[in-house]
Amino acid sequence: MVVDLGRFGVWHQAHKWGPELAAGVEQAGYGAIWLGASPTADLRDAEVLLASTNSAVVGTSIVNMWKDDATAVAESYHRLESEHPGRFVLGVGIGHPERDREYKSPYETIVDYLDVLDEAKVPAGRRMLAALGPRVLKLSAARTAGALPYLTTPEHTRQARETLGSGVLLAPEQKVVLETDDEMARSVARDYLASYLQLSNYTSNLKRLGYSDHDIADGGSDDLVDALVLHGTAVEIAEGLNAHLEAGADQVVIQQLGKEGPDLLPGYEALATVLL
N or C: at which end does the chain have fewer Cβ atoms within 10 angstroms? Predict the structure, then answer.
């Protein structure tokens, strides 16, 4: 029951998605539409995206386990599955200690949440797990269709594939700015990365990848910013996106920065002409 995501998908928070952008992304050839941040348990935003498209997979990336009850989320999953059979993937994750007051025993909480989804008959092959470190990556392989790493690099993708083994979905997110001026592109990137580089789940992962406190401080070093947010022409960005596939990703989930709503579509269309 594992869903075919295609090689490339698109990720945005709900306020950037809309029927026009969703339909355009699907028409451009992207296989999946990812609803970012923390969608509510009723999954109504995902329902809008499903209704706006015909065949693209719609997934959450991710429902926050601290914020939304697993039983309520499971009920919403079954509603979407009934309305749009085979097209929805439930991505769930643990969130961040800096943002979730009740954050404790994260690994056990993930296990308990997945247990409830099991009891509610949400198929393992139709759910994915936000995962960065080895322990949660292994759990994603054992209990779900695969992993949804966020804010990572092709080197993390390579390590994640080694941890997951074969036959498990791996769909890392990669940010991009379609801008050839290095300083302009890095300015857009740093504005977006500022809050993420304050979150220990991400900074710990970056340190495992070899980045230092100096790389992470003061908005991020050029090397770190360029790795986390690709910039340049569509052809240049495509090379970086394909590096994730070469490292073992099944799908690369693209998040374009610097635009809003329908204004994002021309960039995705330009990338699609190179990637798809």
Answer: N
